[in-house]
Design goal:
mainly alpha, Kinase-like_dom_sf, Protein kinase domain-containing protein
């Protein structure tokens, strides 16, 4: 196991707490998370942190350091958001 798995678990736990997730099958969870990742109406700071944690590609997931920096407003966006923002400080992993 790696730190990136821990980040995934943190994101999933945060999602579950925020949206009271109740899914029994992995296939349903996978579909739900894909919809969430692509939902452009869910853009609060917490939503953006969760989305940074649950990126399918482990190398695109934020580190806990990047999450902390984002929460403390030391950076403006995560790597997965880079295409959507110009002239902002990206949270480095």
């Amino acid at each position: 196991l790696t730190k990136r798995v821990d980040v995934w678990a943190f994101g999933l736990m945060s999602y579950k707490l925020l949206y009271t997730l109740s899914v029994d099958k992995y296939e349903d969870l996978d579909k739900l998370l894909n919809e969430y990742r692509n939902d452009l109406t869910k853009i609060s700071r917490l939503d953006r942190i969760i989305k940074a944690c649950i990126q399918v590609n482990a190398f695109k997931r934020a580190s806990m350091k990047a999450i902390n920096n984002f929460w403390n407003k030391e950076c403006d966006a995560f790597g997965y958001e880079e295409e959507n923002f110009k002239n902002v400080k990206i949270c480095e992993n």
